[in-house]
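sry for the spam today, last one i promise. struct tokens for design, 75 residues
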């Protein structure tokens, strides 16, 4: 048996097991993107967004686990 038919290899039962961006962090990121669209001088880079999210963690607004990676923000 090559392993493709084994139950642990099946992917259809594992839908939704990935980590998702929370609604609160999504709203914050959308605000950064929309600020860049409204006024080009207020455009945020991915690193600026990540640093701002880290600052919000220090302030206690969001949890550290809720902050996505830089590559996730970029995509």
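last one done:
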């Amino acid at each position: 048996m090559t392993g493709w038919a084994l139950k642990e290899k099946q992917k259809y039962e594992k839908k939704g097991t990935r980590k998702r961006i929370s609604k609160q962090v999504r709203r914050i990121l959308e605000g950064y993107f929309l600020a860049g669209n409204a006024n080009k001088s207020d455009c945020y880079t991915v690193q600026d967004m990540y640093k701002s999210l880290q600052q919000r963690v220090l302030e206690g607004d969001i949890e550290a686990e809720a902050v996505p990676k830089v590559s996730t923000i970029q995509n």
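The mean pLDDT is 78. ok im logging off now
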